[in-house]
Amino acid sequence: MKLSQIGEFGFIERFSKNFANIPTANSKGIGDDCAILPLDDKNEQVVTTDLLIEDIHFLRKAISPFDLGYKSLAVNLSDIAAMGAQPTSSFLSIAIPADMDVEYLDELMKGYHELSNKYNVPLLGGDTTRSPDKLVINVCVMGKTAKGKSRMRSMAQPDDIICVTGPLGDSAAGLKLILENIAVEGKSRDLLNWHNKPEPAINEGLWLNKQEGIKAMMDLSDGVASDLKHIMKQSQVGATIQLEDVPMSEALIYASEKYNWEPEALALAGGEDYRLMVTIDKTKSEKIITEYNKHFPYRLSPIGRITQAKNGEIEWIKKDRPFELTKEGFNHFGH
Amino acid sequence: MKLSQIGEFGFIERFSKNFANIPTANSKGIGDDCAILPLDDKNEQVVTTDLLIEDIHFLRKAISPFDLGYKSLAVNLSDIAAMGAQPTSSFLSIAIPADMDVEYLDELMKGYHELSNKYNVPLLGGDTTRSPDKLVINVCVMGKTAKGKSRMRSMAQPDDIICVTGPLGDSAAGLKLILENIAVEGKSRDLLNWHNKPEPAINEGLWLNKQEGIKAMMDLSDGVASDLKHIMKQSQVGATIQLEDVPMSEALIYASEKYNWEPEALALAGGEDYRLMVTIDKTKSEKIITEYNKHFPYRLSPIGRITQAKNGEIEWIKKDRPFELTKEGFNHFGH
Asked: I want to staple A174 with a disulfide (CB 3.0 to 4.6 A). Which of A127, A192, A276, B15 is the partner?
């Protein structure tokens, strides 16, 4: 049997039961954005790791080395943000093709440094090695929160309002520009820029985690259509999304009209937005949204609510009528 | 300029000074086997990460998937052992070629589990993704020691006795069997086995760290000729090694005679032994060695001593006469 037949989640399920016999020493969060480990009397530690492989996660010709360094750390910091945690350190493993220019690596490390510096995350270690061909980057980031305050995917409750911290779909549209070899011009540049240099919502996650009424939180790496199911599964709830409430950028609308794309498909089933998705107690959501919008450049947008439905499917509503998403995780809507 | 011109250490030096502006929050150990981070009132945390790439660190046809899974964790646990620490958790990132059989991965995870289980190290997270061609494995391991008790490379002092926790060179000899396509038979099997499935010296490191008089400690991943220089640089000391005291296995002697290898070159300049090298106060070393040898299957062997020499070169002595090691880190001795 080939891996492609069972997928990555199938593989994880196969081995994880075998590890159940090893005591986890009060750790939790396996299957969440981060693992949660005991730290000291007042704090807990969160840990995440992400592997980026050339020609799978990036094309060397389509991203500058500076942006690639930035993004390698950003996708990990986004997982820390999703826990409502403060990042505290990073570890970088890199496998380098022998013919690579040192100047390329200098730029890559400058991009990594810019983001490290922005959020005060020291680089404390790692591994440097040769690669036979592809550039390979693995980053591991640690962070901390007050004890018991990590925001988990299991914390959503029926009637919570589902919000996102910014417009969705820009990154997926940026990827389409790359894959379809479209010459980037005008507003489309923003799409490519967000794809290549996403900003982790560290400050947003920290702020949200301080508000009373915040429940589940996660970062949008695969798209709402796929990511929301993790919250539904782990919280044992359902969810309904109002399509007309999904925030989309001017750049996405502009490019979608120009290239005949479906913007809603990109916004809901495209990946790598790295915005946060958060569920909020319905009695607190209005006040939190108002306050949030005074602090941050992108609005906190309510896009739906958590329900008691148990069928495992997201209910998509457009203008009060059900809307069908036929191929989950991909950009094709039914009629 | 190509990376091959400045090497991995040259690359690390280039970027690390740029990161000096980011506060490290009482962390230390950069350039040691592990980074050392604050944990709680009584303990500190140690962290290490290692990247293994197909065709650089292993050949898929020369190692069983079970051994590869075991070794991926073992090389990281060895770094934890070198700090005298207890491993507490691991994180596994793996990039998998699409055509890989699930059964191969099952075996790999069984090997990883066997070692996890042996030292009670839970697997708390990671990342699974596709790879365009090569199998890529990154492991990050955390451990802990009592506060201030991590054994660093900077802790050696003149007159310390340098000891190693087992015979050296087996792994390098095992690698030669693979690279020279030698049909493995008889005692040579032990060499291949230690190369493919090295045992991290966790219990040895923990035991040594409890003894009064233990100073610097590190694991032998590149060979004494290369690794000892890290202790010399960070402790600002010199070192002299007695070649006839270097422990070598029967299997290494057997294979070296049979294939006309220089066993001392393999023992001192071959890598991946994953034995510990430790420096011990000379007034305490005899007692510690005697006690150690009651507890562990491989003898703790004194192979030389720390000196005040400041020229950065290891002094090699054979039968009271200087001996020259011409190409450091490689298996060629001068006359």
From this structure: A192
Structure tokens at B19: 């990161």
**Cα B70 from Cα B57, distance rounded (Å):** 14
Q: Is A189 helix (H, G, I), strand (E, B) or coil?
A: helix
In tens, the pLDDT along B108-148 reads 999 999 999 999 999 999 999 999 999 999 999 999 999 99
- The whole-number pLDDT of residue B326 equals 61
Q: ipTM of the predicted structure?
A: 0.94
- Best of B136, B141, B222 to substitute, by most chain A Cβ atoms within 10 angstroms, is B136
Residues of chain B with CATH 3.90.650.10: 153-323
Residue ranges matching CATH 3.30.1330.10 in chain A: 3-146
pLDDT in tens, A56-110: 999 999 999 999 999 999 999 999 999 999 999 999 999 999 889 999 999 999 9
- Whose CA is closest to A277, among A329, A331, A201? A201
Q: Is B270 annotated as a binding residue?
A: no
Nearest to B130 by CA among A293, A143, A11: A11
Query: Distance from A310 to chain B by nearest Cα, in Å?
Result: 27
Instruction: State whether A51 and B136 contact (CB < 8 Å).
Output: yes
SS3 B259: helix
User: What is the CATH architecture of B153-323?
Assistant: Alpha-Beta Complex (3.90)
Return d(Cα B252, Cα B249) in angstroms, integer.
Answer: 5
Q: Is B57 annotated as a binding residue?
A: yes
Query: Which of A28, A50, A53, A54 best probes binding to B when mutated, by most B CB atoms within 10 angstroms?
Result: A53
Which residues on B lie below 8 Å from A122 (Cβ)?
19, 22-25, 27
**Cα distance between residue A232 and residue B40, in whole Å:** 35
pLDDT at position B36, please?
96
Angstrom distance (rounded) from CA A271 to CA A177: 14
**Predicted pLDDT of residue B1:** 85
- Residue A120 CB neighbours (<10 A): 14
User: Which residues are CB-neighbours of A276 under 8 A, at least 6 positions away?
Assistant: A81, A82, A164, A165, A201, A204, A205, A208, A217, A218, A219, A220
Among the CATH numbers 2.30.30.40, 3.90.850.10, 3.90.550.10, 3.30.1330.10, which is that of B3-146?
3.30.1330.10
